[in-house]
Amino acid sequence: MSYLEIDNASIGFGPPNNRTEVLTDVNLSVEENEFVAIVGFSGAGKSTLISLLAGLTQPDKGEIRIGGKVIKEPSPRLGIMFQNYSLLPWLTVYENVALAVKQVFTEYNKVELREHVEKYVAMVSLTPALDKKPSELSGGMRQRASLARTLAMQPEVLLLDEPLSALDALTRAVIQDEIIRIWEDDKRTIVMITNDVDEAVLMADRIVPLTMGPSATLDTPFPVNLTRPRNRTTLNTNPEFRRLRNDISKYMVNLNEESKASSDTEDVVDLPDIMPIDFSVYPLQPARGRRREAFAKVAKVMDRETTFFK
Amino acid sequence: MAEKTSDKIKYRILRFLDVTGFAVFDPIVRLCFGEDPKKQVEAIMKFIVIPIFFICFCVWIWWTVAPQHKTKSGEVPTPDIVKQSAAINHQFAHREDTKESDFLLVGEERAATLAEVEEEIAAASVILAEREAELATHEAAYTAQLEQRLAPLQAKLDTLKDANRTVAAEQKALIAAEAQKIEAGTGSTGALIAAIRTESASKDKGRAAETILKDQIDVIRSEKYKPMEAARLAVNAIADQVQFLNKRVDMLTSANRSIKVAAANDKLAETEAKLAEATSAKVALSEAKKLVRAEDSLERLEGQQYAKAMTVYLQVKRSLFTVFIGFIVAAVIAIPVGILCGLSRIAMACLTPIISIFKPVSPVVWLLIFQIVVGAFFPDPESHPFFLFFNSLPIVGDLGINPALVFSGCTVAMCAVWPALVNTALGVASIDKDHINVARVLKLNFWERLTKIIIPSAMPLVFAGLRISLGVGWMVLIAAEALSSSDGLGKFVWDEYQNGSSFSFANIIYACFVVGIIGFFLDRMMIVLQRFVSFDDGGTSL
Fold first, then answer.
1. Does ipTM exceed 0.90?
2. CATH of A4-77+155-264, one of 3.40.50.300, 3.40.50.10190, 3.30.70.270, 3.40.50.150
């Protein structure tokens, strides 16, 4: 039996007569200390999936188990890192992390608490910003603060909901390395949601594609057999990396086209066949001599009966 | 780290201006530190100089338009008169303070002050005499020139009156003759009626001519003779001063507390001596009774305070106290109820009708209701423990807590509770869903959720609501005080409206400025508080 299991989970929203099935019959099993990436398009239901894993929402059908136990409610064991940071803006970075630590390690005294918080803030290289409020931080720093808060709870499973999507490419790379380093130092199970195939290939042990919604489900996983540590600079020339990336990309593009094809059959709107008129024959100065002929030609083209819709 | 100290000071000042909402003065500070002078001067021109010109323009309009409008209470006062009324109010307050300190002076200090005051009286009396003489010369001059100008007109009027009288007599004789003719059978009724008509027409004509002359005389009489007016004002001012100094002498001598206490002590000693000498039971009894009375009165005298008249500053103090009482009561009710409404949709549904119906009710109605309802709790306010307690407190007691203050405070609270309540409910209800999710993941219990997530996140909106509440409260208070006769700025305005002295109208406008300026500072105070609790660094509207 796997460590973290999704067993035939389905969930939908809306009243019975106008129901949108978001996820249907999702199955996934994650081994202990495995790094699983879930890739999918926007709106496919990725965030819903992570909410299910975190216990923030309950499936309509099926169940989600951790270590054999059904997840009924959110708990600090399942450390979720939200897509939009979710730092409390009235607290400093230290206070944000400390609030989480206090809840998990109730037995800590003040000194232990401080040490613990500082250790995790240092882990995401945010020590200089310890006493700053989130509004004074850049996007990347906020993301790291959020990561520090999640890690400081020492969760058994780390659930990352598009942790890097709001960041610029450089910061993204830095935090990717940060997450990989932390994962390698301090092995634990990670489920990461992303829409970036490269990122998934770089970081994960296994990549699970999520099909297009509605009624999305998880498809056959792609195992990533690249050796670690993976070097992002040489990875681009690695044939295995390129093959995997191509496969997944092709699969994703197919998914997209299939979903388009299925929607194409419904309504087709006829667009007018519009051709632009060639205005280059317009004279720039008052016409004289040969130009006048050209002008007459244009006038003919612009005749009342000629429309833009030929 | 490499910042210069001057830069540090500059940014500290700029930050202070920003927080207090005086960002307009930003360019002046920057200019003082020599930062980009051209840009700063431009900003100063645009946002300080032009507004100042506009304000001056408004004042100029006031100055020119006000005297044009004649009212029952005299002309609409111009800015200089309002300024004068402010000065008069200030002087009055200052004099009251002086009298109070005189009342409490003892021993040599008292004697020294008394001597000083008497010297002042002597000096002032000399000036008074001088000024009175001056006034008398001006009055004589005025009367003389008035006589001179009026004499020809008066003579004209007299001759006209005589002429009119003769004409009237002639006409009367004519009418009588016509009547006689009818009696004799020679006249006609037509001629008689014609004669009567002619008489009344000539009477009217004569009267009209008289009226023209009389009007001319009135105009001359009502013309103000500037030097005399000025002299009269000067005399009044110094006479006022003398009166005040005489009052001070009173306060330093017969009305002085220490003097009164000394007199009472003497009386007490006398009675004690008499009691000791008493031989008969009757005398002893009466002397003992006297002694007890004298002791009581002595005790009362020792604790006596100067009964200060209500000055405008005292009114301001009392108004501020009342508004804060009302505001605190409103906040204490509104915040918990607002949180409850924000948390529970059932509570919100229960309270929405109540809020919607009572929010628009006029403060005047609330005041009347509170006078009846709350008034019932204090049938005898003089001896009610509630008032006895508050009036025995050191600073608060000086303000004179009475039922009227309680009613005004309750009215303020009632009207100020709504904005704070609605905003708190909104703040709590509109909490970010992500923050709730954080709370769920961290498994915070209800109390921790409330104190660590919900209240801090609602804080900016709560304070925005409190700011509106304080503004509403201050506005309502003035009306409530006017109506309930609770000492304060509202009563000040009402009294001025009622008493109709020459400065009443100016005093009302002065009070209008006082109320406005205090309201402005209260609002600024709330802005600063709001800034401190808001975490998003967003600006607050001014």
1. no
2. 3.40.50.300
